[in-house]
Design a protein that fits this description.
31% helix, eight-stranded parallel beta sheet, TIM Barrel, 2 domains, nine-stranded mixed beta sheet, globular, 14 helices
């Protein structure tokens, strides 16, 4: 049998079967068609001796839904990038626009609770999800408790977006902490009835009572226990903050009792959000152990000088992107806190990526390459490369095979019930989708930092549906290989 493409002599890792050996891999028509100890015939070949071949990384948490944002993720080994925490107020419109523009890697959305709140309670028009979240962040109605009539309309809107292809329900409750517990529980009940997961940014980030990170995590666990819904907790590292030991214990105990909880984290002690976020109010920063000068406002690149400047920026540009450093990975104690969230058993790696911020340009400015002035949290360009370069190679706290599992199979398994297409991703097996990354385990690493935007290094080749998107470390930005991933309601 002759294949469209053969990748020769790589160390092939399949996290589901445990295969970890040198093989040739054949690809035909977008599928893996052979995995062989013997040489395979093909019209085209990639020589991959000394390199690792594994499933393309699946990012459950990417707001980088633009051509340029996803090209950066392709160079980080990602073949599927889904916006599940925020989601879309109009899933069909978002998918159609992405398909019309073309995307180099696979894409998809959840049904957004928060953005539908903005539409229904503030009367705004749906936009691209990240633009919408930023543009309307200064409005206030969407943050308050809903009346019973409003809550019914919100739930109906979310149900409709799941039916339109949303992969579960995105719940940014941490940005509307006063919205009420009853509505959150009602969302979990809806998810259970529909048989889909929820993806929650927990209600609180704090180590001070009341309203601690623990309280936020326990709300998710209680909703899962009380409804039977699959509840996914986003970026456990940043929302757990320094309460990770207690939260991790609660999660593990709940899972042992059969409660459907899944988690994710990214390998950084800093986050990124909009400056108008409730938890960044000057009077609340101390609850995360932060001061204003630990917040960097990306439209100007400045580290915020004091509480007065923070209040000014929150007032004039509530949707402005920031980086917030709550922990220093170079400090041993801070690093240990971060590692405890990253190493929680069966927790996925997910980036929380966003498109770069270019001063004076639209939020989704997509010039390629991005100009030198562009800034973004390095998790947006290097989350997965940093996982292999730092956690696997430097710190040796994860094996290479376990890191592959957390970046590929686990997220595919989390979504398999809600999005059937995920059953053929996250695996290197005959019949699986040819979403494949080939990387150098000795060089894969983050190149950029908080001051310099640069793609990660070490990803040599990337196939999406059998189509070459990255070749010899160069990305095809204009590739349209990416296809929509939808929920089974579509």
């Amino acid at each position: 049998m002759s294949h469209d493409l053969v990748i020769r002599g790589a160390r092939v890792i399949d996290p589901e079967t445990g295969l970890d050996a040198v093989r040739d891999v054949g690809v035909t028509g977008g599928k893996i068609t052979a995995i062989s100890t013997e040489p395979l015939a093909a019209a085209r070949t990639i020589e991959a001796a000394g390199l690792v071949l594994c499933p393309g990384f699946i990012d459950l948490h990417s707001h980088a839904q633009s051509r340029g944002g996803l090209a950066l993720q392709a160079l980080d080994g990602v073949t599927t990038a889904l916006d599940l925490e925020a989601g879309s107020a109009s899933v069909a419109a978002s998918l159609a626009l992405d398909a019309e523009e073309g995307r180099p890697i696979n894409f998809g959305y959840s049904a957004s609770w928060l953005l539908n709140r903005m539409v229904l309670m503030d009367g705004v028009e749906p936009l691209r999800p990240l633009e919408m979240f930023s543009a309307y962040h200064g409005l206030s109605n969407w943050k308050r408790p809903a009346s019973s009539y409003e809550q019914g309309r919100i739930l109906d809107a979310v149900r409709a977006e799941v039916a339109a292809g949303g992969i579960g329900i995105g719940v940014l409750v941490g940005y509307a902490p006063d919205s009420g517990r009853a509505e959150y529980f009602a969302l979990a009940e809806l998810a259970a009835r529909l048989g889909v997961p929820t993806f929650t940014h927990t209600r609180f980030i704090s180590t001070e009572e009341p309203g601690t990170s623990l309280e936020g995590a326990l709300e998710v666990i209680a909703a899962a226990s009380g409804t039977g819904a699959h509840m996914h907790m986003c970026h456990l590292n940043s929302t757990s903050n320094r309460m990770i030991d207690t939260i991790a214990g609660a999660v593990e105990h709940a899972k042992a009792e059969g409660v459907r909880i899944t988690t994710e984290a990214y390998p950084y002690g800093s986050g990124s959000t909009v400056i108008g976020a409730d938890f960044l109010a000057p009077e609340k920063l101390h609850r995360m152990g932060m001061t204003p000068d630990m917040v960097r406002y990306l439209p100007t690149g400045e580290w915020v000088a004091d509480a007065a400047r923070l209040a000014e920026l929150r007032s004039t540009d509530p949707g402005g992107q920031v980086i917030m450093k709550w922990a220093d990975e170079r400090d041993e104690a801070d690093r240990e806190v971060l590692l405890r969230s990253l190493l929680l058993p069966d927790s996925a790696i997910a980036s929380d990526a966003a498109p770069p911020n270019v001063p004076g340009k639209p939020k989704l400015h997509d010039e390629w390459p991005f100009p030198d002035s562009a800034m973004v949290h390095p998790r947006s360009t290097s989350c997965f490369a940093h996982t292999f370069g730092w956690l696997v190679r430097e710190l040796e706290v994860l094996s290479l095979t376990e890191a592959v599992r957390r970046c590929t199979l686990l997220p595919a398994q989390f979504l398999a019930e809600a999005a059937p297409a995920m059953r053929e991703k996250g695996r290197i097996q005959v019949g699986a989708d040819a979403d494949i990354v080939v990387f150098d385990p000795e060089t894969i690493a983050q190149r950029g930092d908080y001051d310099t935007l640069a793609p990660s290094e070490g990803v040599r080749h990337l196939l999406v549906g059998g189509e070459r998107v990255v070749t010899d470390g160069e990305v095809r930005v204009d590739s349209t290989a990416g296809k929509p991933v939808t929920g089974r309601g579509c």
